[in-house]
Amino acid sequence: MTNQLAAQSTPLRDSLKLAKSLISQGQSAQALVLLRNHISPESDFVVQSRAARLLAKLPQGTLGLRPLRVALLASTTVDHLVDLLRLWLALCGIEAEIYLAPYDTMEQTVLDPSSPLYSFKPQLVWLFSVSDDVELATSPNATSAQINTAVLHAVERREQLWRILQDRLSCQLLQNNAELPVDDPFGQMAGTQGWGRRSLLRAYNSQLAIAAPAGVAVFDLDHLSAYWGSARWRDPRLWFHAKHAFCQDATGLVASHAARSVAAQLGLSRKCLILDLDNTLWGGVIGDDGVAGIVLGDGAEGEAFVAFQDYIKALRERGIVLAVCSKNEMTAAQLPFESHPDMRLTLDDFAVFRANWADKASNIRAIAKSLSLGLDALVFVDDNPAERELIRQQLPMVQVIDLPDDPTLYVQSLARAGCFEASSISAEDSQRADNYADNARREDLRLETPDLSKYLESLQMRAQVRAADDISLPRIAQLINKSNQFHLTGLRLSEPELLALDARDDYQIIGVRLTDRFGDNGLVSAVLLHHHNHVLQVDAWVMSCRVLGRTLEEFVANEIVNVAKHRGCRQVVGRYVASPKNALVANLYSRLGFGKLDDDWVLGVRGPEPRWQTPIAGQSFHNTRVRR
Amino acid sequence: MSNREVLQQRLNEVFQDVFDDDELAIFPEMTAADLDDWDSLMHITLVLAVERQFSIRLKAAEVGALENVGQMIALLEKRAA
Predict the structure, then answer these.
(1) Beta bridge partners of A510
(2) For residue B34, what is the domain's CATH number?
């Protein structure tokens, strides 16, 4: 009997107890870190639900997370999901206020302009549909034309809802695709014939992904049900009893994936992977075993290390920045990269390579600093539990991945942590890793040239200033939502919200790209300008910290004055809204010579040009609007 | 302890876990009206937790029919391993 009761006092429940007592002592941020380190999507539902209620009791704003209004529209019962979604969003850095539309009123709620959905003004609407909602009426032996029409028609029904929502709200949408039901009267034929239900739903899912425009993200419910096991996805008792779309134990999986997807849309996903070397990228200890002695390439474990490196290399190619943090001599640590034939990663793949005997927390702080990244952008992978525990304690903002002691499980451990979810891949993303490597070389040059102005000139910088267009807008949205340090007002605007502003004549969105002799830095700065009453107001001004200290802010300030002149404004008005992370720009307007007037910083437009000196070359932006 | 008392004690542990209250003490006449958090959603969570703890599987009809603690104990007496 004691072993039965033991289920009630697992380590997880002990952490929950500890979190509860931390909260009662007013240490809610520590409680959140504790929960993040111990709760996984597949933890016992009861524990997740208790953790959710624990956080839900905190007064709004206690945790200092990013607020977000989320509307959930479902054809099935998802009340359990609401609690866990709030939990998982909090674990991803978001404090959600959630509106749940009444059961099975998805279409009515969207169509009725007076529905509470619209007065709630959600920033994100999740259309939680399931396969039962997808009407795909065809008969056995339907022609391929009939099949295509049925699929397109089903997708169009979704598109209509998207259009209405996007017209009436500036919000992001999350749209479920359809999970594949298991029990079908046609058996195998359901998936082997074009007209079979499973084939049709597969076609519907592909078409949905193709049809989703900017601002609409598809939520891959089909993948989650398959991952969970489609035979046990739906609990028929709960389906008939209360119309639960999936079994209760899968709720955490659904909630955590949705939360990661939403966090990615808000630019909260992580950017940099920090790797240990010995027993992480290869088996054995290079300093002891030598290049010939490490396990890599041959045998089950050797192949597994190669596969792990392949996976990391693919992350690097999609734009994740890589760094090494290893307790080793530098020469020994680099040896396998230089001479082992089965190494997949090369020294060029890493933006920072730190091998020394200092503690890893200091090394990780140094890595964050040299990459101009916040600790909350980092993921740390190490086979040594002691090192992981050290980082968890010293740097709780860093996400630490638990590696099991079998290297064949490394890939899934990293992949399933879901730390690098993205909502879109821009050209800048896939180039980012290169940019950081370029930056490391620029740092080297800075050391060679102690004179700052000579250094800046030697960079041969060119800026390109353009009004936002279809290609740059997603990147500008990303920059406005991801930037923390160089962000004057902290304003967050989704891509659809920016599109809506850009369509107005009294708004101007400008993106700035910067290249130099080491490469293209991509689109690194943006401003949102609002013209009213002969005043040009800077509603948002963001810049990537990769290009700090390059006088790009002076260059952009010149451009802002140019726009003001072209629009016949008399003044430029800026504002600094302090946040925990943007102290960097607290004195920017003062430094640029703006005068303080109440909460605003004001500059007269008349005066000699260019107003501020900068070695950056580039043609000025003229007030010719690029119409999309 | 009688078998019934043992079952009630084990069931009490499940209630304490689900309702996040270490002080919670169940009694046979106890219904959803006696516990603020015991709504229709928590009822499902509770029933699933009972299933797991006692290694049984209830029928949909049984899920809806369990209105008080006494009925749960009676059902467990019949079904639990």
Answers:
(1) A467, A527
(2) 1.10.1200.10
